[in-house]
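Sample intake sheet
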Amino acid sequence: MFKRMTFIILLIIFIQLPTLIYAGNFNIIAENSYLILSFNDITTEIKVEDKITGKTWHSNPPERDSREKIASGSAKNRLSSQLSISYYNHRDWNITKDNYNDSMVYHQYEILDSEIDNGIKIEYTIGQKWSEDDIIPLIISEKRFNQLLEYFEEDDINFIKDSYLPLTLEKRNKEDEEKQINIYGADNKNLFSEYVPKTTQGKNETEIMTRFLDLMVNNREDISSRGDITIEDINYLKEKQVYVLASLMSWDYGDLVELINSSDYFAFILTDFKR
């Protein structure tokens, strides 16, 4: 999960006489004896015209949609951006984002033309703030899971139950003395020396535990592999049952997203969070 970033672009040109004139898709927002600054409030691109030479500088390639024949998808869309950033995440992956693919397409920008005299200010939030499947619990406590089910009818309840796997850690008893938990890449000796995973669904406990660990790896910035997970990270499983989102087929996952988003559960968790 990456951190959202907010950037501000300030475009200022000092003028003698303020003016607002429509020039095609561009609005002239500032002008002096030498230069004209124009702004497109749909694409947030600008152009600067030199009155003396007649030359024009564009923040983005003009006619890029029709003239660009090689790039496609997000690479072509990047031609519509005014800025891009490149950084390394906690897994040492190089990530590049720009204000078109990662801000404007999500309508995560604001034009603040009234804040600057003779110029324009645009605030971009880069990185999608919210998507529909963000509401889907990946790991949920038994109490919260039961609260979730209260918002649905019987058929939907059965579907949700089938989408989650119950899991807990129980202290080893005589039957578990010789039981070995071998999850590839995990610190099995320290994680499962005193406690072992259990489930009430009659499925393979090790597979559910593996799913649980992988969800942690994929969704926590401080964990990059199964081997990074310590006993402190899973202590809350001891003698307490949680529900782990199963690995669903894409169409089942889509149905689950649609089902939960259509309920009042989201409003409930927001209200509960504010208490």
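Comment: The chain has two domains: 5-129, 133-274. The first strand starts at residue 5 and ends at 12.
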